[in-house]
Design a protein that fits this description.
- The protein has 67 residues and is mainly alpha-helical.
- It folds into two domains: 33 residues; 33 residues, no CATH class.
- The protein contains four helices and no strands.
- Helix 1 crosses helix 2 and helix 3 runs antiparallel to helix 4.
- It is elongated and about 40 Å long.
- The termini are far apart.
- 9% of the residues are buried.
Amino acid sequence: MKALIAELVQKADLSEAQAEKAAQVIKGFVGSRLPEALRGPVESALSGERVDSAVDAAKNALGGFFK
């Protein structure tokens, strides 16, 4: 989330507090529209965990869809 917050501060000209609030709203918005199997990996990527491991988890959750 730190990277998203930094982008919001820089590109949207938001204060740090505004960017943090916006990031939480974005996370909730995206998470509420994803299937349960994808919600965890996407939230992990947003929170700053390794993106490749989040992608692998999403692929595993979707079975052979990406093969």
